[in-house]
Every structure is written in C-alpha cells, then in structure tokens.
Write a structure and sequence with these properties.
By secondary structure, the protein is of the alpha+beta class. The chain contains four helices and nine strands. A six-stranded antiparallel sheet has the order 1-2-3-9-8-5.
Length: about 120
C-alpha cells in the first residue's frame, strides 16, 4: 500500500491535498478503505456547511460497519463528490483519485497532520 507523498494524513485515516486557492480536497486512505470493506453508502457534509478539524462531518457505511467521517481541517465545504454518493464503491477502488469525498476552504489547519511516512509508520504491523 502506497500513500501519496504530496498528501497529509489524519490519525483518523483521512487524507488532505495541498490547498489550491485556499481549497483542499479530503478523502479516506487506502488503509481505511480496506479496513471498512465494501463501501455501500456515503453521507457527506452539505455544501456551504462549516466543519471543524477533528470533528465528525459525515459517515461511510460498508457491508461490515458504519464509520464516522472526520474533517482533518476546519473550514467551509465548497464541493462534495457526487460520483461517490452515486457509486460509493469508488472509495474502495480509487481512494486517492476518483474516490475523494469533499473539498473545503481551509480556515483552520491543525499542526498534528502526518506526512505520508509518518502515516505509514503509524499503521505498520
């Protein structure tokens, strides 16, 4: 399993892209997607809503369980991935590409986000 180097990661297994014009993309990692199993439903935050770093902002339901979705940063939701709502299996098949979950205009970025190497080390073994 390879975690893209340009991304940063939360301890809750979300990834965050570098912000472009203040907006970053959020998804869950391949590690989390594999742990969840087949994702069958995605409840994403509403466009225009405000999220806080580390707080629940939605959920992913798989054939095994329901897992909370956390925002790795604080800010305002600018877009959700409607393709994932329509076809939640994208989270499993392409967690770092087509399976992204939402975009957020970042207003608060905690300093405890992990690099790819730190995230990989946290989940090794």
């Amino acid at each position: 399993m390879s975690n893209p180097q340009q991304l940063r990661y939360s301890k809750e297994h979300e990834w965050l892209s570098p912000a472009e014009n203040g907006v970053a993309t959020v998804g869950i990692t391949e590690f989390a997607a594999n742990a969840l199993g087949d994702v069958v439903y995605a409840q994403l935050p509403e466009v225009g809503s405000t999220v806080a770093a580390g707080e629940t902002c939605g959920e992913l339901e798989s054939t095994k369980s329901v897992s909370d979705l956390y925002s790795p940063v604080g800010g305002q939701i600018t877009e959700i991935n409607q393709d994932v709502v329509d076809d939640p299996s994208l989270v499993n098949s392409a967690p770092f590409e087509d399976g992204w979950l939402f975009r957020v205009r970042v207003t608060d970025e905690p300093d405890d986000l992990l690099s790819a190497a730190e995230y990989t080390a946290q989940n090794a073994g």
